[in-house]
Structures are given as C-alpha cells and as structure tokens.
Amino acid sequence: MPSWTRLPSDQKRPLSREIILRILESRDPEAARVLAARPDSAPEVLYFLAEEGDLAIRRAVAANPSTPTHANRLLADDGDDEVRAELARKIGRLLPGLPTEARDKLRAMTIDTLEVLARDQLPRVRQILAEEIKSLDCVPKKVIQHLARDVETVAAPILEYSPLLSDADLIDLITSAQARYVLVAIAKRKDLRSNVADAIVAVQDIPSVAALLENATADIRQRTLEKVVDHAERIREWHQPLVQRPDLSQRAIRRIAEFVSAALLERLALRNGLDEKTRQHLKARMRSRLEENPALMGGERGIAEEVAGLERDGKLDDAFIARAAEAGRRELVVAALAHLAHVSQDVVTRIFQSGSAKPVVALVWRAGLGMRAAFRIQSAILKLPARELLPARDGVRFPMSEEEMRWHLDYFEVPA
After folding, report:
1. Cβ contacts of residue 366 below 8 Å, gap of 6+?
2. Which domains are present in the chain?
3. What is the arithmetic mean of pLDDT over 130-150?
C-alpha cells in the first residue's frame, strides 16, 4: 500500500483535498474505511462512501457522528443489518444536539431517519434504537408510542424509562397489555405515580405486583397496599417485597405477620418506627411459630444443606429440578439454580419475578440443566399461561441461541 494511504483513524493533521481524491480514486478499501471513520471528513466524501463503499466502509460511515443527515437517511435503508445497527447506536446521540425548530431541514431529515429505524424489519436494530433513546425527551412521541408496543426486547426499555409516556399512556398500556412484560417494565419505572400503581395492582398479575412492590420509588397508596395484603397470603412471591416496603401501615404489618415465613417475620420485627401494639403482636407471632416448629428459623440453612447433599450424591440434575418444580418447591428450585449457576438466590428470585420465560430458560442453561427443567419451572413455578411458555426446539433443544441467552442473563448482570 502506498505510504499516503496509511491513515490512522486518530490522525490529528487534516488531510489535503489532493490526498482525499487520491484515496477515493485508488479504491483502496482499508484507506477508504479509515477515511470513512474520520470525524473531519467532508460531508460530500462521507456521502460518496455511504453510497459507493463496501460493507466495512458503510458501517464506518454509519458510526461516524460527522456523517451528514442525508447520508444517514440513505444508510437507514441499507441492506446490511450491521450498517443499520451502527446507525441506530448513533442516532440517539445526535438528537439532543439538533435544532428545536420543527421546520429545520437538519432536524426533519434526522427524525425521518429515526422513524425508518423504528420500523426496521430486524428487532435487533429496533432494540438498539430503543436503548439509545429510552431516556430522551426530544424524540417524537409517536416514535415512543410505536416502540412501546413492539416486541419485548424493544418495548421494555421504553416502557421502563421513557419520560414521554404520560400517566394516561401508561394506564392505557396496562389495561390493553397482551403480555406480562409490559406490566413488569412499567412497574419498575422510577417515581411511578399512585394512579399507575393502582392500575397495575388492579390487574392482579403476580410478577408485575412483585416488581411494583420492589420499586422503592413507586408511590403506592395505603389502600392499594392493603388490597395487595388481602391477596398476599396465597402468593408467596409477594411476601418478601411486601416486608421490604418502607411505607407499610402498622395495621398492614400486623396482617402480614400472620402468614409470612419466620425469617420474614423476624425482619418485620427489626423495622424502625413500630408502635407498641405492633411490636407485641410480632413477638407473639414469633413465639407461636417457634412453639409450633422450633426448626423454622433454620429453614433456609436446611434447604442449602439439602442442595449440597443432592449435588454430593449426583442427584442435582435436570430430572430432579423438574420434579421439584412440579411439586411446587420454589425455595428448593431457587437455591438449586443459584448453586448450579453460581449466582445469588436474590438474582434467581429477580429473574423469576420478571415473569418472562426467556431469562428463566437462559438461567437454566447457565446452570447446566436442560429444557425439561426449564419448561417445568415456567409452568409450575412461574405459572405462565400457555401462550407465554417457551417450549423446547425439536423437543429437547434450547429455543434460543447462546448469544441471545447471554443477552438475557446480562440484563440481570449474570456473567455467562
């Protein structure tokens, strides 16, 4: 390669017009790729490379923040998925710096590019775009509303973070939701308003209410919390997040004490701000539990010992986990998966409470188990409706690629 084409992308000296023309005329792909990535390249050069360059060159132009708007618009229709993915990563960073005037040509063409990417045929491109714009307030609301009704990986970040979704929008999404992930994502929103929390509780979806209770910033009315408590005795997934709520009334605390485990009862007793009536009630309940079964306080330790013994005997396998799930032994399944996947039980619990089949299947894969256990956990532990179950491929294989399963685990900060 001639020495004048060896152009490091971080080169500080501007290139002369003569050198640029010689690069373009030479059609040397590596030199052109470096030129495509340089932020000081002229707009007409970047447009030419977007139109005439090979895949690597077009990807570099798509990622270049200096690429002119009409070249970005051209690349939004590119036939290569990675070109459009690079453009989706970049577009969200450009929006905050655009002129606010609706008639400005620069803004209009960038918004047009954004709208094309929001309708991209590839969910991965739309997912990247959603992650980039999820917290922005300068995006057209119609784009946000469109993405909020997309598939889970696209809609979830918009539902959880977008400031452009009003309470009325959120309530409409809740009442019309066809899938659980919509409710769970909304339940996790920061500073969730009480009327939206009311709508989530009204649906009575177990993982969604659990996510709402875990959201320390959610404003939940006392009467709404009491409604949850009314149903919580038979729903163990709500026990721990209920006990952790800082805004429980004394009356709610006393009612919860009637049905939660001894370990959670002990946690209730350690809360600050208990009145004397509640304090005495909790002491009485704890005393009663210990009289009924002195081994209760060692329950968690007993399950851990059971899991360790099963592994020692070579019995902690797919068939055993499937049987434990069928028997409803949720704590044992959680402890076993945490042990096999080398994660904490809190992580396993959060994945279960997401109410989504995909991260559960990914966790089972991470634990070295098979789809038999994954399917039983979905149906018997999470109690997912038939339309939300994720069955095995060809009867035995995992239905997702390893890359997709790693993505779902990474969402919960699980190394894979």
Report:
1. 341, 343, 405, 409, 414, 416
2. 1-165 (1.25.10.10), 298-411 (no CATH)
3. 96
